[in-house]
Amino acid sequence: MFINKSSFKPLLTLAAVAIATCSIGGLHTIAQAQGTPGLVIFGDRDVDILNYYLDFGGAAKQRDRYRLRIPKKKLANGATQFIISYPDYFDGKFNTDKIEVRPNGDKKKSLPLKSVVWDEKNYLIQIELAEPLKEAKKVEIVLSNTKNPEVGTYYFYAQVVPAVNTPVPERIGAWVISIDP
After folding, report:
1. How high is the pLDDT of residue 128?
2. Which of 5, 37, 68, 130 could join 112 via S-S bond, C-beta 3.0 to 4.6 A?
3. Is the pTM of this model over 0.90?
4. Nearest CA to 163 among 135, 138, 140?
5. Selection from 29, 61, 38 nearest residue 155 by Cα
6. Cα 124 to Cα 150, 151, 159, distances in angstroms
7. Where are the domains of the chain?
8. What range does the record give for the signal peptide (predicted)?
9. End-to-end CA distance of the chain, in Å?
10. Which distant-in-sequence residues (6+ apart) come within 8 Å of 133 by Cβ?
11. Three-state secondary structure string covering the chain
């Protein structure tokens, strides 16, 4: 029994196409790795996970831009202040002069801020708007020129002081930020 060598060519071509497709798909997945919170196996089950994006890939000890997103449904009562708390083992650095709040993710528009306070001892950032955001809009908090910490996973908790009703901070979720080597 002889096997014709030409009958293997279509199989080899098919195998090459399959490998190339998997490789391209794998590269796309790697490129988007810092675009979503991913799968959270361990952590706080009672917290809604919020989306974020790290513009420069989230490499340890490097400069980055954090885009922390809050969906419209989480801001039903508007906002006057955003409070971001982070864990005590986060050893990164924030630049308070480079913090923006952008409505609807608009890169050209930023809401005017009354104050930005980075309380390093209590591990939080308070961002107070100059004028209350009275209607529900999706918001992107941009922390530019941030120095990433060591490799690890960090829960950044979001609280909002609503513009309507009682001005008491409400926890709305957490960004689960992964920093890679």
Report:
1. 98
2. 130
3. no
4. 135
5. 38
6. 18, 20, 10
7. 52-179
8. 1-33
9. 55
10. 75, 78, 79, 80, 103, 111, 139, 163
11. CCCCHHHHHHHHHHHHHHHHHHHHHHHHHHHCCCCCCCCCCCCCCCCCECCEEECCCCECCCEEEEEEEECHHHHCCCEEEEEEECCCCCCCECCHHHEEEEECCCCCCCCCEEEEEEECCCCEEEEEEEEEECCCCCEEEEEEEEECCCCEEEEEEEEEECCCCCCCCEEEEEEEEEEEC
Structure tokens at 158: 């979001």
Q: Rounded to an integer, what distance in angstroms lies between the CA atom of residue 1 and that of residue 130?
A: 85
CATH number among 3.30.1330.40, 1.10.150.50, 2.60.40.1290, 3.40.50.2000, domain 52-179: 2.60.40.1290
**Conformational region of residue 165, where left means phi above 0, alpha means psi within -120 to 50, and beta covers everything else:** left
120 or 1, greater pLDDT = 120
- How do residues 62-85 score in pLDDT, each as one tens digit? 999 999 999 999 999 999 999 999
The answer to whether the CB of 126 falls within 8 A of the CB of 160 is: no
Identity of the residue numbered 15:
A
Q: How many residues does the chain have?
A: 181
